[in-house]
Amino acid sequence: MDAAVHTGASPLTSVSELRSFVRQTVEKTPVTDIHTHLYPPDSPQLLFGIDELLSYHYLIAEALRVSDLPYETFWELPRRKQADFIWATLFVNRSPVSEACRGVLTTLAGLGLDVSRRDLEGYRTALADLSITEYVDRVLAVANVRYVVMTNDPFDPTERAYWLSAGRGARDPRFLAALRLDPLLLAWPRVVPQLVVAGYRVRTGETGLDAQTLGEIRRFLADWIERLEPVYLAVSLPPEFAYPDHSGKEEAIRTQLIEEAVLPSARQYGLPLALMIGVKRQVNPALRVAGDGVGKAAISAVEHLCASFPENKFMVTMLSRENQHELAVVARKFRNLLPFGCWWFLNNPSLVTEITRMRMELLGTSFVPQHSDARVLDQLIYKWAHARAIIAEVLSHQYELLLATGWQPTRSEVERDVEALLGGYFWEFTGRRPGADRQDAR
Ligand code: RAT
Ligand code: ZN
After folding, report:
1. Which atom of ligand 1 is nearest to the CA of 279?
2. Domain containing residue 255
3. Residue 442 lies in a domain
4. Has residue 91 been placed in a domain?
5. What is the CATH number of the domain that holds 23?
6. 207 burial class (0-12, 13-18, 19+ CB within 10 angstroms)?
7. Which of 9, 20, 76, 423 has its CA 20 to 30 A from that of 222?
8. What is the CB < 6 Å shell around ligand 1?
9. What is the pLDDT of residues 156-197, one digit of tens each?
10. C-alpha gyration radius of the chain
């Protein structure tokens, strides 16, 4: 039968037909990228271009470990020189076989540049004529990304100034906010003076936080939720994160902040709380932004939160490979838990394949296989090209197993499943769609 006469209801009956249809569907379905470090196109913080691609902190760590260059000397270099150093170290003196290096090449190729030329200067000038709007349009089109969810920290001075600026233009509807709460939950003594300066009457008492302080934090959260209209609240946490935790003053305050400020605000606005657990900040401080590591966390924190707050929704990603199976098991137990992404050091094809297959075996299509974590706009191209290849492969494999039983998936069922994996299930979980009224029912 000719491909043109197939309808959505027509079943896929052979492995080859199935595989090619899955691959095509995954390629053409636009994605919602639920966690990035991108900024709106009119923000001075949005990074793009080859020098930013090369000086990505994943590549900084890889280059400095095979070099004698003192860390401080590297950090003093201007961006372009840092990029020159990384290009020479990782692409000229060695083969760029790591995932982050390959990513640069996939990105350049996606932008229509010839990587066989190894022409760094040419890559610098090739897209120089594009305006930022054209650049964003080009990258989102090549990556086939419909929405990017940003990471918006109201305690970051540049970001704060951007969101408070009266001259800010209309929002780009493709760039959605996530309200990031790391300073609030991880550095409370440091944020107290900032909150006070911003007009919130908070204080730290000897026996924890008083009712007025908690009310003021909820007012702060409400103000920023209304300003940013985030699709979720988020925090990244160390491997030691426990809930509840009254082992020390700092831990007790964090527990109180979660229970009496963050979760009530999340409920009030119908927003999930994303927990990104397992980052050991600054295991090598000399590496600065590239100096963070990983540790295995206790899954019991996730179990306790999901069980204690059934009216809250939790999105969870964990950084350690060792946590992945137990996270998927907990997700089977709690409908208010959405596992997402293969985060940071897990974003390597071998691990993404393993984790995505395991999640699909345990959860069907009720999870978010990947987010990009892109810090540089252009990275959307490689992160999604590489992720799509794996998602298509894992899904095809699962369908193939169904085919062996005699079950025949239809074309529209494949489209439905791919849509769920590339963003649909995330929107269903959050109970909202961009452009739709807030709080539409789940
Ligand atoms: O992946 C990254 O770029 C990390 O540096 C972190 O930003 C991490 O993803 C995070 O969100 O904390
Ligand atoms: Zn991140």
Report:
1. 12
2. 3-430
3. no
4. yes
5. 3.20.20.140
6. exposed
7. 423
8. 37, 151, 236, 276, 279, 344, 373, 375
9. 999 999 999 978 889 999 999 999 999 999 999 999 999 999
10. 23
